[in-house]
Amino acid sequence: MDLQGSCACGKVKYGLKSHTPYPYNYCYCSICRKTNGSGGIGINIMGDNKSMNIKEGKELVKVYQSSKSSQRNFCSECGSHLWNYHPEYPDFIYPYASSIDTELPKPPHVVHLMVKSKAPWARINIEEGDKQFDEYPDQGIEQWHKKNNLYIE
């Protein structure tokens, strides 16, 4: 699936391909909460890093090294978190669903992860079929899409 994304001020625009576009993974860790700032959660999807194309505003994209292995890219003009990159997985890039302008498909259920780290004020709305984990589940983004027959070739 071809995806188009941008920041809030519109000065950074990007595109990429994703085989795993369902925004199902709700992360409650403190880093996602603080860098994304949306309701106490962060939601990312996974894309093909080789297809990543920053169409406008490349000079405005800055990196916050949130851990040894996590490079969070954001717009230096408006502060919008755009995508995360992990050098140990060079084939993949993890755009925040909130930065995607393309209409994303609605997941049949969601996974609430890192619940042990959630802010006390954050609400977890569990619906039928949802799963909840104190930490990271064993199943990754690609596996979840394949298991649910949602992987797009």
From TrEMBL:
<dbReference type="GO" id="GO:0016846">
    <property type="term" value="F:carbon-sulfur lyase activity"/>
</dbReference>
<comment type="similarity">
    <text>Belongs to the Gfa family.</text>
</comment>
<dbReference type="InterPro" id="IPR006913">
    <property type="entry name" value="CENP-V/GFA"/>
</dbReference>
<keyword id="KW-0456">Lyase</keyword>
<dbReference type="GO" id="GO:0046872">
    <property type="term" value="F:metal ion binding"/>
</dbReference>
<feature type="domain" description="CENP-V/GFA">
    <location>
        <begin position="3"/>
        <end position="122"/>
    </location>
</feature>
<dbReference type="InterPro" id="IPR011057">
    <property type="entry name" value="Mss4-like_sf"/>
</dbReference>
<dbReference type="Pfam" id="PF04828">
    <property type="entry name" value="GFA"/>
</dbReference>
<protein>
    <recommendedName>
        <fullName>CENP-V/GFA domain-containing protein</fullName>
    </recommendedName>
</protein>
<keyword id="KW-0862">Zinc</keyword>
<keyword id="KW-0479">Metal-binding</keyword>
